Amino acid sequence: MILYIFIDGVGYGSDDPETNPFAKYAKGFFLPLADRSGKKKGQWQHASYIETDASMGVSGLPQSATGQTAIWTGIPAPNILNRHISGFPTYTLKKVIKEYSILKILKEHGYRCSFLNCYSEQYKEFIKTHPRHLSASTLVQMASEQALKTLEDLREGRGLYMDITHEYIKKFAGKHLEADDPILQARDPYEQGKLAVQIAREYDLSIYEFFFTDKIGHSQNWKNAAKVIETVETFMEGVVDTLVIDKEQLIVTSDHGNLEDLSVGTHTKNKVPTFLLGQYSSFFAKRIHTLADITPSIYELFSIAIELDSEQFIPKAEV
Questions:
Q1: Helix 91-100, helix 64-73: angle, nearest 10
Q2: HSE-up (13 A, CA, CB side) for residue 49
């Protein structure tokens, strides 16, 4: 079992509490993002933090659409377009995801896989009428021809909400729910971390996406940074405490830096962490150098022979 967690917009920063909220607020999981020496790893000493290249050889600030496409397809998306693309995947990136979605490939080879995030019916109706607003993660699940998880899945404990704690469900779906609906109740992030592992055990590979870190990085809001760091660190404690390290595997990564430097409201060129804990950590640590290396490494572990052809997506020059 592999639980693959994506945390948007976190990279390695300086050990400076004036600019890096990880240096100021982190107590556990995020501490190494302020200190690469390993002195602050504490309870995470047994885990691997791999400094991972989010630029993939292309100049400019790494961005979400290209970074996430690389993470979930193994295709170095910035190299195809010779630039980094922010926001939602473009036409070309959608073609990449449609062909090489990791969930699609795994399903075709007989593996059980799923995207654990749950969505309201209102969101699913929204993306039908606004197809340009499909995120890379949504496209990865859709390419596998598996339905997005619903709020009913959330009620039944078959998935997770995007904010971990359910604080935002009322804002995005509350008017369509009964006031006493149990899913409106706040959740303990530690227990949610435990739940993530329990759900993941139903699959060979599961993906969970958390993007509030990136939003807070853009807002340069220190108060919210403190809160989100505490939430994610507590969630990760629940994950790690539940994981059977000698039988299961955890992978956590990001698409670009951002939250580690609140002196700016943009992404950064900093390397991002790929966090490894579990049975196959040494295997992955030897193979992961850029964001595009993660998916091919998973295929190798699962003995899936596949040629990831980037060239077919590069626009052909006119003769």
A1: 20
A2: 24
